[in-house]
User: Fold UDP-2,4-diacetamido-2,4, 6-trideoxy-beta-L-altropyranose hydrolase from Bradyrhizobium algeriense.
Amino acid sequence: MNAVQRVVFRVDASTEMGMGHLMRCLSLARDLADDGANVFFLLRSHAARLTGLIEGEGHSARLLTDPDRRPDAPAADGTAHAHWLPTTWQKDAEQTLEAVDRIGPVDWLVVDHYALDAKWEHMQRQRAPRILAIDDLADRDHDCDLLLDQNLVLNMERRYRGRLPPACRPLLGPACALLRPEFAGQRKSLIGRSGKVGRILVCYGGSDPGNETAKALSAIQSLSLPWLAVDVAVGLSNPHTDSISALCREMPLAELHRGADNMAELMTRADLAIGAGGVMSWERCCLALPTIAVDIADNQTGALTALAGCGAVAYLGSAPSVTVDQIAGTLRSMLDDPARTRAMGEAARALVDGLGTSRVREAMRSLESV
Assistant:
């Protein structure tokens, strides 16, 4: 099979969107680059602060200029997440085509964006011979050669029925989860978990606008267990860092990690996690980490529900409706029942082996030779 030579990623990130879309694209980009590909990222200019992160990985980052003012209303034929774009999908498509023209011939275009669908992808066929669409919602049509949905959802094989071209190959389920290689590496050296909890990891991803982190810390604090160690990981753009830091100082064994780049290590040494859904669900599963989870976005509900059905998480519901007392009660029950906690970690571990990124890369390579 031929190696993929040149790949363009169209993805965005923000407080509303979170960082998960960008992080999973970076995981795939790293794997492709290690295989010899040249990688380019296209983002809206409102994500300019993230170019350093992308370029630090050795990729090129280019910005699509935002308009001076957002359209008064989304186009009638836009997606449910059309408001995630500061312009129309047509203008975004035109700007993407212009950027690809400047980059030169590409082998693949990877698009990970809820505001973009088959209409946008069809326009990109002018420059991109192959398209990989990454989705979680199954709420819109796609014009792509590969469709990746790494989530665990009931009736997954039916979700995209009628939404994909006949020749499109779907890559479905957490076996294809796009994780950084350090997760597979940590998994190899992972010692079996006993179910006893002495260290907790609290992390709600790169953005936590509702400050669920503080709620989780208050729940831990309410149990008055001074021997319990806590790692607290927050993103660099978290607006609540000062108040979270103050809470950590009140807890004898709490440590704040701001902009942590060693999440696999933090997850490996933890005995239990408290957090949200999204990409981190699959990272925690890979490392057999039992988790108390809430959803902080509607698109996390299906996967967390399915994970709970497998016994892989304790899912409490939507974050705004979950109270400190609920988290504390669930935490106490897991501290008191190591067998349950251990079983939860084992159920999670069975779902994700950390090799999904290489599976997606090989699927792309297989189409290169067709």
Residues 182-349 form a domain with the Rossmann fold fold (CATH 3.40.50.2000). The chain has a mean pLDDT of 94. The first strand starts at residue 6 and ends at 11.
